[in-house]
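anyone seen this seq b4? input:
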Amino acid sequence: MNVETMKKQGVQEIVKRFETALLGFIEDAQNRGVEINRSDFEQLVVRAASVYAKNYVKAHGFIQIFGSRKLSTIASIYTPQRFQAHTAIRNFESVDELEEAFSQDLQRSNHSKGNNLVGINIANEESYLMVLGYPANGKTTFLKYIGWEALRYPNGKYKHDLLPVFVPMWKFCRLDCSRDTLLGAIAEEFERAGFLNPMDITQWLLSQGKLLILIDGLNESALPQKYISKHLQTFVKKYPLNRYIVSSRLVSYQNSLGQFLEVDLHPWSDLLIQEYIHKWFALRDAQDGQNPQADHVSEEAQRCWEILQHNRVARDLANSPLCLSLLCLLCDRRYSFPSHVSGLYQQAIHLVLEEQVLKCQSLDHPDRNIINTDILEIFLIEVAYTSFELNQTVLSLEEVMERLRIVLTNCKPSLQNLDVDFALRVLQQVGVCQIRNVLDSPIGVSSLVFSHITFQEYFTARYVYYHQKTAQIVPIYLSDRRWQQVFLILAGMMLGNPETLLLAIEAQAANYINTAKLRDILDWVDQVSTHTSNNFKSVTKRIATLFIARPRFTAQLASALILTRMLSVANELHKTLETNISFEQIFAADLSLSLAQALDFDSKTELNLATQLCQHLEQALSPLCFDRQYIDFVSLSNNLKFLEFQVPSHDQPYEVHEAFRNEISKIWLKSLHLPVELNQISYQEVESLESYLYANLLMVQCKDMAIAVSTKTWQEIESRMLQRFALN
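predicted toks r here
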C-alpha cells in the first residue's frame, strides 16, 4: 500500500481501530465522576484519529536520504535487517531484578531465538524488545518500519492490532523528571491530534494494552541511564499488556531493562548492501523526475557495487546504512571514496552544501547571493559543539538564529548581510538538520534538530579539532560513553597529529587508577605477566593475566556484575590487539559464580562453580605458559577439591555457609598468590577500573581510526598499557 492509498483507504481503518480501542472509555470516565457527551466524543475521536494517522505518517512514514531533495517512504528504502541475541553483562539494581531477568531468559531458552533473526519476525514474537547496534546502523529506521507496518494493520506485516506511538528520546527526556515522563510524552502525541482528555485516553489505552510503544535512542538521553532504565521498567510493569521496542547504541546500554529481549543488529551482508544500493539509485531517478528504467538503475547500482568491491576501506564503511548512502552519493556524483569515516562525512556534506549554495547564488537576491559553504560550516560547527556539550539534541530556533547572527558578526563586513532565515532553509534542504514548527517541535517552540545524531557528533569533532580543544575535552569526557563517536571521528580528522589525542587519552586513563588497591592489581598483573614463556605482546599478556586478577567472591551483586562487564571491555581490547585466546567460557563461569553468590545458592554448587572457573581459566590461558611459581592452577584445583569434604549441609545456619564461602575465597587468593585484600574492592574502585580499561580500548580504536600514526610513538604507548610504571 503506497502513501496515497493510505490516505484514501487506510485512515478510515485506523479510525475504526481507535473507536474499537476506546470502547468502554466513556463508561469508565463516568464511573470516575467525569461527564462526557457521547455524541461529541465520538465525533472528536473520528477527527482526532484521522489527524493522528496523518501526523504519524508525516513524521515517521518518510525518511530523507542524505543529498536528496524529497522525502522517501520508509517502505521504499527499508532493507530487511537481521539480528542476533545479545549476551553482554548488564547492571541490576537488586537481586529481585536479576531473578526477574533470569526467569525471563529461562522461558525464552525453551524456544531458542538463534543468531539469524529476521527483524519483523522477532518484533512479532517479542512483547518487549531491546534493539542494540553501532552508530548509524539502522536502529531508527527499523523502529519506524515496524511502526509503519503496525499502522497498516491488518494489511501490514506486523501481526498485532496495536496503535503505534513513536517516542524519540528528546521527547522522553525534556519533561520534568518529577513527572511520569514517558506517560506525558505519549499523551502529548494524542493531544497534538486533538483527542479530548488526552491524558485520560492515554491511560485507558495503556491499561487495555492497545499500544505499540517505540522508544528511539536511549543513548541520547539527557538524563542518567540508570534513571531512564528504572523509569522504563516501572512503566512496563504498570502497563504490561502493551508491546515495547526500544533502541540504543551498544556502548551506552549498561543498565538492564529486565524482561526485555536484547538483540544486536547484524552487519549488512553483501546481498543487503547490493539491495540497498539498487533502491538508492532507483529513488534518485524517481526524485529527479525521471521514470526509473530498470536497466539504467541496475547498471548504475552495479557500477557502485563494483567500485566498493575494489576498495576495501569503503567496503567496510558500507556496513552502516548512513555511510552507504553517503558512498552512493559520492559514486553518483563521480567522486572518489575517502579512506575513513571522518573523510566520508566531510566529503559528502561539503559536496551537498556546495551544490545547494550554487543553486542559491543563481537567485537574484543580494542577501542570498553572499551565502557560502564556509559560513554554513562555521555555523554548524558552533551549534553542534555548544548543544552536544550541553547534552542537547533539540535547540530552540530563537537560540539557533542568535548563534548564527553571532557567527555573522565575526565575519568580514561583506558577509554580514546574509538573510538568517534563508540560511537556515538552505541547511534544511541540504538534509543535515531539520527545522520543526511549534506544532511539530518536541520542545513546544520552533526548533532545530540534526537529522542524525552522527552529524552532530561529526561537527562537534570538527569544532574540537579546529579550536584545538583536544587537551581540554579528554579529561572531562573520556569516560562518558556518549562522547565515544566524537573521539573516533576526531582521530580520523587529525591527519598530522593524532598522537596528541592518543597521548592525552593515555595520560587521563592513568588518573583512573587512583587508589593503592587498584595500583596493587596492576602491579600484580605486570609482575606475573612477565613470568610467561610465549611470543605474545607484553600488553596482551597483561590483559590475559587481568582475567586471573579480577576480584571475585565480592559481597555486592552490583560490584560482581560490573567486574564481569569490565572483563568484557578487556576482551574487546584483547581482540583489537590479538585474537589467540578465547575468554568466552571464563565469562560464563564468572557470571554463574556471581549469580550463585547473589542468589545464595547452596555451598556445594558454589564450590563446583569455583572449580569450573579454575578449569576454564587454566584451559583458556594455557598458551601463556605461566611460571608455576606465580600461577599454579593445579595447586588451586587440588585445594578446592579438598574442600569437598567440608561442604556444610543444607540445614546448617547461614553463618556456616558464609564461612565456607570465605574459605573458598582464601584458598583462591592464596593458591594464585593474589593480593590479600583483592575482594574488598569498593564499587567506586570497580567503576574506576572499568573506566581505565575503556579508555585504553578507546585509545586503540582511535589509533585504528587515524590515517597515520607514528610507529615509534604507538609502540611506546602500547608497551605502557596496563602497566604500573605508566601511572607514575
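The chain has four domains: 3-265, 267-335, 338-493, 510-727. The longest helix spans residues 38-60. kinda curious what u guys think
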